[in-house]
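Let us practice reading a record.
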Amino acid sequence: DRDHLEKFSGHCQAYYQRSLTNAEDSNSSDREFLACQIILDALEHQLINVHEEEISHEHKMFLSSDIAKQHSAQLKSCGLHVHCQPAESSSSGVGSSPMLSHQILAEYAKIRDQQRRLAHESQMEQRKVQLEKLIRKKVQDANHIGEDTIGEYVVTSQSYLNHVRGVVRIFASRYKGDIGTHSFLAGVRSLIEKQMNVDSKMIMWSFNGSTLSEVSFNSANPRLKKCGEGYMKEAVDLLTSFMICFRSMESTEEAKEKEYEPMYGFHVHPMISNNYLRYIVSELPSQKNLEARATGSLETMSDSECERRGNALGSMDDQSSLIPW
């Protein structure tokens, strides 16, 4: 009945919202989440045996399990608790209570798929907003970027080169095994290589925000505890370790109203030399080891948009930086 479907919808919503977020950020408790999981398992058993007139042995074993019995009230509230007759009273030995009709099961499956899609869309919107906040914070901190500095570092110094190489190395090592990050890594490499071939003007890399906000790590090594939110922050940290955010095309809300993704533009700091860029790009995976093309587009910036490179040939570099470390 309709009440069963509404209760089932609520459990699906809670389950998928919890599944797509960190546990500490969810409003549901572990017990509530387990109940939702049991309810979805019960539906799966029904769907698997949709053409059977009797309860299968696997379905009966599931309903007879301690965990299902502990959540029998929730299963009943969703209309997914099937009463199993004792084996000795059933000629088939597996129970013979009627299963849900094909039409009703289709309603359950439709609700499940809808709630899963809505939860995914909600998570993606939240990530877009979070990404915008991360980048806007970096733009606000741009007053710490001087003509030859990024944060506390002078970009022509050995200490800066050591720092930025470490940032890039750690990021690449942590994420190069996930194919979803390859288009971003290829984009960073493409920008650096293009800039090394242009000694005067700056090259801007423009890319879609979804490149960072929609990466999933559900299949990643659980020991690394990677997640989409953490990846976005580390990716922005990498970008701003040697690049400047030139522009954020429009806010997430403005882009949403116009039905397209927010775009971001970055260029290399004007005082970073080609020598330093060679060291930085050496920390990235080679293009042949990346299973995706570079995301975004590259364009040469005009003098009115950005100052020209001031140290392309490295005349201002700390000369000790030329010694590999």
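A brief commentary: The two ends are 70 Å apart (CA to CA).
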